[in-house]
Amino acid sequence: ITSIVVQFNYGFFNFKCFANFIKAIYSKNIKIIIFLHSTTDPLLTETKKLKDLSDTLSLCHRLLVHSPSDLNRLKSIGLVDNVSLFPHGILDVKKYSKKVNIIKENHKKFHFSTYGFCLPNKGFPELIKAIALLHKDDFKCRLTLHTALYDSHDSLVFYQNLLSLIDNLKLKNYIKINTSFCSDKDTLKKLSRTDLVIFPYQLTNESASGAVRQAISSSTPVAVTPLSIFEDVLDVVYRLPGCSPSLIAQGLKN
């Protein structure tokens, strides 16, 4: 073995064990490349501070990050020379043709969609409540959530809570959930058949989103909440005015 690549995410590592592992690999003259998918420390976890790994990370041949903010955070803990920006790409796919119907706006029923694993930080409850607010304003729309179940009990419970919310808001005729794990090709086809793909994330320490790139690849317009995870795609998406149901609804209406 001459080189090793590590995909780093805070939740996957015990920092003390991770440091020992890196030092052991380094002692064997093996090049170490680490993709840091986040550089923002969790607020309530004292045992997971990136500065505590700074000496260990300085041993690596290359640290690859996804945003200028990541570069600055690593610089603040003394990591500069071995750090490089590695932007996420988008799928190189044949563009899907979109049939555009010219209809007076107040008679059109918009089809919105969202995409990503069925997990709490995605903001799906807020999006569902936003759809309820739009219906109260007689704004004609429907929503499909393409959200595959994650392999955890929390994901299943979250999915059941979404179904209850849809039922309580009497939106069963307007909101559908697809929990199938689909291929990239099928995902892009599904997203390309909608008018707008929405990413209503509420809170995340991740530096960049892979899911939003699927939507961009589908050639469908994309709307995102104003979080730093989307800062590298702001030139090609619509930025919603906030993360609350009312602000998401306002942004969709605009």
Percent range of helical residues: 25-40%
Q: Major beta sheet, specifics?
A: 6 strands, parallel
Distance between the termini: 55 Å
Dominant shape: elongated
Tally of individual helices:
8
Amount of beta strand: 15-25%
Strand tally: 10
Average pLDDT value?
89
Give the uncertain stretches in residue-range form.
100-104
What Rg is obtained from the alpha carbons, in whole angstroms? 21 Å
List keywords for this structure.
254 residues; 8 helices; alpha/beta; single chain; four-stranded parallel β-sheet
Care to describe what's here?
By secondary structure, the protein is an alpha/beta fold. The protein contains 8 helices and 10 strands. Strands 7-6-5-8-9-10 form a 6-stranded parallel β-sheet, with helices on both faces. A 4-stranded parallel β-sheet has the order 1-2-3-4, with helices on one face. Helix 4 (124-136) crosses helix 8 (245-253).
Helix-strand blueprint:
Elements lengths: L2 E6 L6 H12 L4 E6 L17 H4 L4 E4 L2 H9 L6 E3 L24 E6 L8 H13 L4 E6 L6 H16 L6 E4 L5 H9 L3 E4 L11 H7 L4 E3 L13 E2 L5 H9 L1
Parallel strand pairs: 1-2, 2-3, 3-4, 5-6, 5-8, 6-7, 8-9, 9-10
